């Protein structure tokens, strides 16, 4: 039983919350409650989650020596010696096979907006590209400052693309821009936690942390938060968006975005707890309330009014 718990710890199912981004295209297209869209979204969510878990395994294998020197990551299953490297490689392969197998289930779903064969092929290709990109990220690319956070943010754009292909929805330039910007903002906030740890211990938790400092990180957080908010406001007042949603009240949802950004900056700068965005979303009641209010506002605008 203990070994099974360690296997689950290695694949990090709590991190699967990030993959809810695949439901974004269906939500904003107003088809989220259609049966085929729900099934396609769930299949894509599982496929992406399995692929992400495969990457987590590879990351912990590749970083095992660095993790053993880290005050927190030393408790990871491989670094702690609870899971052997061959076992981790086996689990990595299994997760990848499950990801590809899950995406092929889209072939069985009829879809009025896209051919099931095209849907399954395009979605599977995006997930495969995500998997290969993150192998390169874990092995080399994460050593380069700025490039590392851009790849993380681009990974969320790929989630949107996969979700869009799965349900046959073409993404707008706005949703792509805002997804990249908000996740870039959160990625810089996460790096801030690494910089604080480096200044406290004198040892860089990541090889590229020495290319960051608090001045740079604080300015990067401010810039990305500001651009995100401006981009969102432009989105809500865009004539094409107003026409698409048949409502000119979208601008009111900017309040939730502003408050959410301010809260995350508070968590990062005041509380110094931005090291794991998933934990912030799962544990911070303020953030949860803001997200819920934003979702409910869009539900009313898209599906009711």
Automatic annotation (TrEMBL):
InterPro entries cross-referenced by the UniProt entry: UbiA_prenyltransferase (IPR000537), UbiA_sf (IPR044878)
Pfam families linked to this entry: UbiA
What's the protein's topology in the membrane? Multi-pass membrane protein
Transmembrane segment boundaries = 16-33, 39-62, 83-108, 114-133, 145-165, 171-189, 210-237, 249-265, 286-304
| Keywords assigned | Cell membrane, Glycosyltransferase, Membrane, Transferase, Transmembrane, Transmembrane helix
Cite the Gene3D superfamilies for this sequence: UbiA prenyltransferase (1.10.357.140)
Q: Which domain of life is it from?
A: Bacteria
Instruction: Provide the protein's localization.
Output: Membrane
Any one annotated GO CC term = membrane
One GO MF term on file is: transferase activity, transferring alkyl or aryl (other than methyl) groups
Q: Where is the signal peptide?
A: none
Q: Which NCBIfam families match?
A: PRK12324.1-4 (NF008978)
Name the record gives this protein: Decaprenyl-phosphate phosphoribosyltransferase
């Amino acid at each position: 039983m203990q070994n099974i718990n360690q296997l689950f710890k290695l694949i990090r199912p709590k991190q699967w919350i990030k993959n809810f981004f695949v439901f974004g295209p269906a939500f904003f297209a107003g088809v989220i409650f259609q049966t085929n869209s729900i099934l396609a979204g769930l299949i894509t969510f599982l496929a992406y989650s399995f692929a992400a878990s495969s990457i987590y395994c590879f990351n912990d294998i590749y970083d095992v020596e660095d993790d053993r020197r880290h005050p927190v990551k030393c408790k990871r299953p491989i670094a702690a010696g609870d899971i052997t490297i061959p076992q981790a490689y086996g689990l990595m392969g299994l997760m990848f096979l499950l990801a590809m197998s899950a995406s092929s289930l889209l072939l069985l779903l009829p879809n009025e907006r896209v051919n099931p064969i095209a849907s399954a092929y395009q979605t599977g290709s995006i997930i495969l590209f995500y998997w290969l990109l993150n192998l390169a990220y874990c092995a080399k690319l994460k050593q380069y400052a700025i490039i590392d956070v851009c790849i993380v943010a681009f990974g969320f754009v790929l989630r949107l693309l996969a979700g869009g292909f799965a349900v046959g929805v073409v993404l707008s330039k706005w949703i792509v821009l805002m997804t990249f910007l908000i996740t870039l903002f959160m990625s810089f906030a996460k790096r801030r936690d690494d910089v604080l740890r480096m200044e406290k211990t004198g040892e860089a938790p990541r090889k590229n942390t020495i290319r960051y400092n608090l001045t740079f990180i604080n300015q990067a957080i401010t810039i990305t938060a500001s651009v995100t908010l401006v981009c969102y406001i432009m989105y809500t007042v865009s004539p094409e968006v107003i026409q698409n949603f048949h409502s000119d009240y979208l601008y009111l949802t900017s309040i939730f975005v502003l408050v959410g950004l301010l809260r995350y900056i508070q968590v990062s700068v005041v509380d110094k707890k931005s090291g794991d965005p998933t934990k912030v979303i799962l544990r911070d009641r303020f953030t949860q309330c803001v997200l819920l209010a934003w979702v409910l506002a869009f539900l009313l605008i898209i599906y009711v009014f």
